[in-house]
Amino acid sequence: xxxxxxxxxxxxxxxxxxxxxxxxxxxxxxxxxxxxxxxxxxxxxxxxxxxxxxxxxxxxxxxxxxxxxxxxxxxxxxxxxxxxxxxxxxxxxxxxxxxxxxxxxxxxxxxxxxxxxxxxxxxxxxxxxxxxxxxxxxxxxxxxxxxxxxxxxxxxxxxxxxxxxxxxxxxxxxxxxxxxxxxxxxxxxxxxxxxxxxxxxxxxxxxxxxxxxxxxxxxxxxxxxxxxxxxxxxx
Length: 235
Ligand code: DX5
Ligand code: ZN
What we know:
Elements: H1 2-12, E1 15-18, H2 28-37, E2 43-48, H3 60-69, E3 74-79, H4 83-93, E4 97-101, H5 108-116, E5 121-126, E6 144-148, H6 162-173, E7 178-182, H7 190-195, E8 200-203, H8 205-208, H9 213-226
Parallel strand pairs: 1-8, 2-3, 3-4, 4-5, 5-6, 6-7, 7-8
The protein binds D-xylitol-5-phosphate and zinc ion.
Zinc ion binds near residues 19, 44, 77, 182 and 202.
């Protein structure tokens, strides 16, 4: 299971992942189908607990409900204080990738290993002010790094370019590691993120606050295509 969904995510990359934070929660089934029609291949789910971050969103029942309506891989971003505790129910609900925050745990390698044991793909996330050094102990044993370009917690914040340096460093050291960016991604910031070596681009406002998901996805995908990292020698 984990292998197949990881392959599906890798095959989709480079890809825009709509973040289900600013969507219409009264019509999740319709939103999923509109996003699919607009070209989405992977969905990003923002789980917040009102403790690790001040905001609160949703958890297993919504993941499970979405799972019933789509076969798209579900990339679950856990912005919660005790990710290991909720990892199993999240996997049972249908998560394909579980990404936890390094700031939330005491031993990043141990948490990664605990989640890995559940047979799911594992990601580690770090906020803009958190150094890359903090995630190094788990890098050999994870599938993805989520580099936050805003402080986790809310959609609609301003892009922090510190994420670009982290992406560049990770990409040069780990050519095969999946890299994801999240926060403030729009048609102006997605190109630099792609040029820095990013594979997966989480987008909230720049999709959900527009009139056409399809048009928004196209503009973003065109910018990804225009900034192929292998063609841009550090420019
Ligand atoms: C922020 C979330 C993001 C957010 C992105 O804590 O993790 O996924 O929804 O939204 P925008 O694109 O509006 O920054
Ligand atoms: Zn997110």
